[in-house]
Amino acid sequence: MTSIAAMNNWFSQRMQRWLAARVPAVSHVRLDRRNIFILPTGPGLLFLAATTLIFVTAINYILSMAFGLAFLMVSVFLLSILYSFRNLQHLSLRGLGAEPVFAGQEAAFVILLEREGERAHEMLELRFPGQRWSHADLLDNSESRLSVFLPTAQRGLVKGPRLVVQTRFPLGLWRAWSNVDLAMQCLVYPVPVAGPLEGHVLASVSGKSEASLVGTEDFHGLRNYQAGDSLRQIAWKSLARGQGLKVKQFVDNADDRLMLDWAMFPGLSSEERLSRLCYWVLELDRGDIDYGLRLPGLEIDLGRGDVHRRKVLSALALWNGSKGGQGDRSA
Amino acid sequence: MIEARDAIPRISLLWLLAALLLLIVPHVVRLPVWVTVLLFSCMGWRLLIYAGRLGFPGKLLKISIVLVALPLTVMQYGAAGEGLDTAVCLLILGVVFKLLEMRDRRDILIVIALCYVLAMLGFIYTQTILATLHAIVCFILITATMLSLYRDDARNTFKDNGRLAVRLVLQSIPLTIALFVLVPRVSPLWSMPLPVSSSTSTGVSDEMTPGDITNLGRSTELAFRVSFTGDAPANEALYWRGLVLDFFDGRTWRRAGSTLQTYQMISRFPTDFRGVPLGEPVSYDVIMEPTQQSWVYSLQLAEVSARDMVQDRNYSLITEMPINQRYRYQVNSYLQHQTDLQLAGTQRARSLQMPEGDLNPRTSALATQMRAAAATDIDFAMAVLQHFRELPFYYTLTPSALGDSSIDEFMFTTREGFCGHYAGSFVYMMREVGIPARVVVGYQGGEYNPYEDYTLVYQYNAHAWAEVWIEGEGWVRFDPTAAVAPERITLGVETFFQDQPGFMEDAGFSMMRFRDTQWLNTVRLRLEGLDYAWNRWVVSYDENMQMELLGNWFGDNARRGLLIALVSTIAMFFVLAGWFLLRHGKVTRHDPATRLYLNLLKELARSGVPRQRGEGPVDYCSRVAAQRPEIAMQMSEVTDLFLKLAYVNKVNMETLQNGSNADFRRLRLTCRQLRRRLMTPLRRLLAGARLVP
Predict the structure, then answer these.
(1) Which B-chain residues 309-348 have CB contacts (< 8 A) with chain A?
(2) CA A233/CA A250 separation, integer angstroms
(3) Region at B622 (left for phi over 0; alpha for psi -120 to 50; beta for the rest)
(4) Which among A47, A56, A71 has the least Cβ separation from residue B176?
(5) How would you classify the pairing of strands A257-261 and A290-295?
């Protein structure tokens, strides 16, 4: 690491620490003079340059009214500080969290904006640093909800970074902003990756009964598509391979139970295994089958339904080595 | 493809076009016709792009427009050498061309910045009230354009933008005025190319061919305005001296050589060459209209302190630069004075110069004959005036044309002329017999504006008279015109000429035509007075005036006082504007019941029983009951109702608002009664309107 990068790093760490102290992380932040910052924008500097030009011309040609114009511009420039500031002041932000997503998808953090005073708030712009902007306003409504997006790369519990709330209202001469940490988190599941269950692995369910499952990669487990089959069960991969429309078929209908196991995908890295498991969880969830999950150091009993699925996916998202603890990773 | 965030809202474009149109209109009179046509076509094109009828012009077209327009502009103006006009024209063209390739926010922001500069450019040519109002309207339009770039669609309407822009400007005006008064004015940083406007010079010229000055008699344009400290001298004393014309070639009077080169400045002469002031000076303040000439007018004998002005050997006031803007100067004049008691050799030679050849023998003979008959030079001069008075000489604005022997023809044949004829012939006769004499051109008289207490001098006041050097007296003023038409001097030219056909011929429908209609004349003088006050106090506000004004406020420490005042003004602006703008934001919304209760608390605090910090409603109620037993009953009722409404069962807001909740109605009534009881009579009176159910 070069010395400049080191310094940048050091600086940004200091900045983060300072911000953390000044604008602490809480789920509800009210913007006021303690946490609103304000600086001129590029157009603001351009405006000042025009003002300077007019001022110099006024001096050189001794034009009283040009002085007047330059001073009017200065006054408007100064006044708009107050307008910009006022546009953020007494605005409160509440982080409502984000729906879990699969790694690689964009997490949408939902923010509730409320006005605490009687003023309208116009043209509010919010984003996570470096991401795309979301717009909101509070004109006649006293609260407004909006989503702020953050791309995810890795599974885990992603902590939303500091949120930038800014406004350039009214003239774009100033940017009033605040960096708020709404302590929001988003659960990121592993990317589902289709993969065959090695051979006809019979996973033991609770050590007693067994269930078998046909892998999608095997012709054995695919049957031709028939009208009325769920689209979800179509084997898109075989279709893509030019093998016609096939439907994934579960063999053992008598005993709709399957224990998904870490050991089902030998020879793969742990992330790859989690991705395969994730895929199968989704498949099984659609397939009307009771399923469970067994990871090193963690076991989830058989079950089905939304709650169960979330529980299993969360476990996949948060699995952290053999300890099985609640892994907390930043994206 | 332009991202939505960078796209220009459609409404911004309309605002911008409106602003540009308004900005350009006053320049149209100065711009070449083809430029005007080009400007409007470009704006029209942009409007069509907006409407979706046309696309953006191709690269080739854009380049060719620029390649044709730029050299053409430079060529057009280059010949006349008008640097500033060229710059203005190029800037306007540049802004309008930019319209045709303005695609995203960055482009429009550049155009907006240039528009502000354009708004300033108008002031180079004129700084009247009207021009200022025009600039303010333009400023509002440009600001609205900028606003429209940063607003939510719901509020991005003409009405909302316009209203907010007007509000921003109005709220900025107090600070603007403070800055205008307080920001230290400095001298020009570097010398600028002279903004010689394309209009030719106006006013009295530095040449006089008899017949010339009559043209001025037709013009009702203002020459300058004077305000005297104290009473204005009588009309017949108002000889506004401009230039001395001492060279005569037989037809035309002109200055002997260019002033600054040939003439030494009076300040370099020994004191005895300066005028000798007698008596008290008259002091006055002149605001001159631009003339594009570098001399100004004053009453003889003038004393000036302005740094950019000198007095030449003939006591004319010469400025450093041609006057291309309204120009203000202060003069002290000693109406009683003596000048040049000793006439230097070169001066004498100049004042005796005669044209080559003997073109006017009859006049020469007449002069010689009259001088012989007179005892002294003064007697001779008086005799010549007498000659003008007694023979049938006419004072007219439309004299006949004269041939080569112009003096003879005038003196013996036509015998009609304007001031130039009389002054020229008079000086000619003096010089003929060896008396130093010269022609002086300037203005005579003026119109007094009683509403603003100042005098207006118009172009039709232009005049020419003579100065004769008399042994022991120095230069003495003789006005032969006064001998022919004394009313011209005493009553003023407008009264004298009001029925003459040529007078005010160029005035058109000017209000000057209606000076006989009393009320219209009053309106005219009032408007004129307003314009004068504007010029005197606003447009002419400069370093000197600033120091004068601030000297009154801060005494000797004007500079430091200025700085303190400036800083405190800006600070005060922020405090006041901040309070004004931010105060509403702090209001926390209470439900109606709490509001009633809190209002009551305010009244109780005023009457001397404030609630303590952290004191609950019940505790407070009992304390109020103890201190003010007369309201104990009502207070406890209010407290009960308030607690019930606000805390015990959170009632539906709507039932409170539409009055269908009985508890709330009861609370409202009791609170109102209680507040009335607590109020002092005066407050009850003031609040009466608000409390009436």
Answers:
(1) 325
(2) 10
(3) alpha
(4) A71
(5) parallel
Per-residue three-class SS string for B169-208 = HHHHHHHHHHHHHHCCCCCCCCCCCCCCCCCCCCCCCCEE
CB atoms within 10 A of CB B8: 21
Q: Where are the domains of chain A?
A: 24-188, 190-213+253-331, 219-249
What residues of A are in contact with residue B116 (Cβ under 8 Å)? 47, 50-51, 54, 69, 73
Question: How many other CB atoms are found less than 10 A from the CB of residue B49?
Answer: 17
Q: Is B619 a catalytic residue?
A: no
- DSSP state string for B270-325: -GGGS-EEESPPEEEEEEEPP-SSSEE-EESSEEE--TTEEEBTTS-EEESS---S
| The CATH homologous superfamily of the domain defined by A24-188 | Immunoglobulins (2.60.40.10)
> Do the Cβ atoms of A289 and A299 come closer than 8 Å?
no
pLDDT in tens, B411-438: 888 888 888 888 999 999 999 999 999 9
Say how many Å lie between the first and final Cα of chain B, rounded: 62
Distance (Å) from the alpha carbon of B318 to chain A's nearest alpha carbon: 19
At residue B653 the predicted structure's pLDDT band, cuts being 50, 70 and 90, is: low
The whole-angstrom separation of Cα A278 and Cα A313 is 7
- Cβ contacts of B506 within 8 Å, gap of 6 or more: B218, B219, B220
Which run of H or E residues covers position B649?
none
Which entry of B89, B419, B621, B671 is annotated as an active-site residue?
Answer: B419
Examine the pLDDT at A221 and tell me if it is beyond 60: no
CA distance A286 to A179: 42
Interface probe for A, chosen from B150, B163, B570 (most Cβ of A below 10 Å), is B150
φ, ψ (nearest 5 deg) of residue B394: -115, 145
Instruction: Say if the Cβ atoms of A86 and B585 lie within 8 Å.
Output: yes
Give domain limits for chain B: 10-182, 207-351+435-521, 592-691
Q: For residue A88, which residues of chain B lie inside 8 Å, CB to CB?
A: none
B431: its two tokens: 């010089």
Tokens standing for B403? 């041939």
pLDDT band per the 50, 70, 90 thresholds, residue B190: low
d(C-alpha A71, C-alpha B177), whole Å: 8
Q: What pLDDT, in 10s, does the model give residues B71-93? A: 888 877 765 556 778 888 889 99
| Those residues with Cβ within 8 angstroms of residue B548's Cβ, 6 or more apart along the chain or in another chain | none
**Residue B127 to residues B135, B197, B585, Cα–Cα distance (Å):** 10, 14, 41
Contact B577 A79 (CB under 8 A): yes
Cα–Cα dist B48/A56, whole Å: 37
B85 is catalytic: no
CB B296 within 8 A of CB B319: yes
Count of all residues that appear for chain B in the document: 693
Alpha-carbon distance of A59 to B192, in angstroms, equals 10
**Which residue's structure tokens are 């991969």?**
A237
Secondary structure (3-state) at B468: strand
Least Cα separation, residue A131 to chain B (angstroms):
13
Q: Would the pTM count as exceeding 0.80?
A: no
- Based on the residue annotation, tell me whether B419 is a catalytic residue of this protein: yes
Q: What is the average pLDDT value for chain B, to the nearest integer? A: 81
